[in-house]
Specification:
Distance between the termini: 47 Å
CATH architecture of the largest domain: 3-Layer(aba) Sandwich
CATH topology of the largest domain: Rossmann fold
Number of strands: 20
Number of domains: 4
Bound molecules: 5'-deoxyadenosine, iron/sulfur cluster
Helix content: 25-40%
Largest sheet: 5 strands, parallel
Oligomer: single chain
Length: 409
């Protein structure tokens, strides 16, 4: 039996893409293994959003040289965003690499496998990785924005929304396989529109599928959160009350230079509107964008205070080749480090504060083990009693300790 080892870097889109690629390998007779030593195929699904992410993926590839030498019949597949960016240059540097499949080619991965001549029969039935409690469902690929720091549009291409029917079939299949929660994925997921189906329609439709207890989505773009959207989903408790909403900067001037399409005020307005529907909000922030002054950075700090995020992922600006911002003069590295440090200090207490604020509230908890689960707002909750995994209970919160809530029941 051919065994495949999978190493995935980057975002949840990549996790879903790895699942999809595995399904094609499985239909050609491969079995999943967590042990690289016993694998015949190594699939590396890569990220290039920051230099560091790309570097990790490429150094993993470098380490596979010895693995391949041990048994020359082994197959190495390098896929995803870094594969798209680096393309054929990789083949020269790593001649032992068998298949390169860029992020734009994921949809044609089956053809790539067949064209490689490394696999015997084209597959018939597709097997998927055993679905856990969360089923990941890609609803759109690519991005139509052109944020000046971001390499995603060039490696993933423009937006292509998947047909609603296919998405519903995929989600229903995952629910039948045991998923209680469906996570809808896309680079600007809430820009989804297919014929007459809007993102809000899609959320409501997925939430009505048999077996689906909760629907999550990531990552949305602030500008698509409209009053109409909120109106359409506000009475649907199955839509999880957590949104990961990247802000990137708190300075309107920097946001304009980043070409984000909103101001600080508009972002804060969206935050208020989402909070009024009970949403708990986390974010991404970049420090040290080339034009960021001390004052701009202070605006980011004050926005963090105002928005009261549940969590914030903070990154040092990393120039990406071919993006407009890559032509700008970089700030000194020590400034980036200093600002990251200050910001990390500020965001450190955010989750704790958000957890404390839940004491006394009533939460709907989806059990991920017998006595621990996640609330709709993404808080971890420990229960007193034991419940079947996958069940949903409603309970009030007695206390919070760090990033754990303790339930009455
Ligand atoms: N430098 C640093 N961070 C970046 N991100 C995207 N591009 C860059 C870059 N060039 C961050 C953004 C995005 C997250 C996925 O990665 O914050 O939301
Ligand atoms: Fe990159 Fe901006 Fe598109 Fe997000 S919206 S993927 S940051 S270009």
């Amino acid at each position: 039996m051919t065994k495949v080892f999978i190493q995935t870097y980057g975002c949840q889109m990549n996790v879903a893409d790895s699942d999809e690629m595995f399904a094609h390998l499985a239909s050609r007779g491969a079995q999943y293994t967590e042990n690289l030593d016993e694998a015949d195929i190594a699939l590396i699904n890569t990220c290039t959003v920051r230099d560091h992410a790309e570097h990790r993926a490429v150094s993993f590839l470098g380490r596979l040289a010895a693995w391949k030498q041990e048994k020359p019949g082994r197959v190495i597949i390098f896929a995803g965003c870094a594969a798209q960016r680096l393309g054929k240059t990789l083949q020269k540097k790593y001649p032992f690499l068998d298949i390169i499949s860029g992020a734009k080619e994921i949809e044609h991965f089956a053809d790539t496998l067949d064209a490689s001549g490394l696999f015997n029969a084209p597959g018939k039935d597709t097997h998927q990785l055993a679905s856990g409690l969360t089923g990941y469902v890609t609803i759109m690929r690519g991005c139509n924005f052109a944020c000046s720091y971001c390499i995603v549009p060039s490696v993933r291409g423009p937006v292509k929304c998947l047909p609603t029917e296919d998405i519903l079939a995929d989600a229903a299949q995952k629910a039948r396989a045991g998923a209680k929660e469906i996570m809808l994925l896309g680079q600007t997921v809430n820009a989804y529109q297919f014929e007459n189906t809007s993102f809000a329609d899609l959320l409501n439709q997925v939430s009505r599928l048999p077996g689906v207890e909760r629907v999550r989505f990531t990552s949305p773009h602030p500008i698509y959160f409209t009053p109409e959207f909120l109106e359409a989903i506000k009475d649907n408790p199955k839509i999880a009350r957590h949104v990961h909403l990247p802000v990137q900067s708190g300075s309107t001037k920097v946001l304009q230079e980043m070409k984000r399409g909103y101001t600080r005020e508009i972002f804060l307005e969206k935050v208020r509107a989402l909070k009024s529907c009970g949403f708990n909000i986390s974010t991404d922030i970049i420090v040290g964008f080339p034009t960021e002054t001390e004052d701009d950075f202070k605006e980011t700090l004050s926005l963090v205070d105002e928005a009261e995020f549940f969590a914030a992922y903070c990154f040092k600006y990393s120039p990406r080749q071919g993006t407009p911002a890559a032509k700008m003069k970089l700030l000194p590295q020590n400034i980036l480090e200093e600002r990251l440090d200050i910001l990390l200090n500020k965001v450190r207490g955010l989750s704790d504060a958000a957890y404390q604020a839940q004491v006394g509230s009533v939460q709907e908890v989806l059990l991920e083990s017998e006595n621990k689960g996640r609330a709709s707002g993404n808080f971890w909750v420990k229960t007193r009693k034991s419940y079947p995994v996958g069940s949903v209970i409603k309970t009030s919160i007695e206390k919070a300790d760090g990033t754990l809530l303790f339930a009455r029941d």
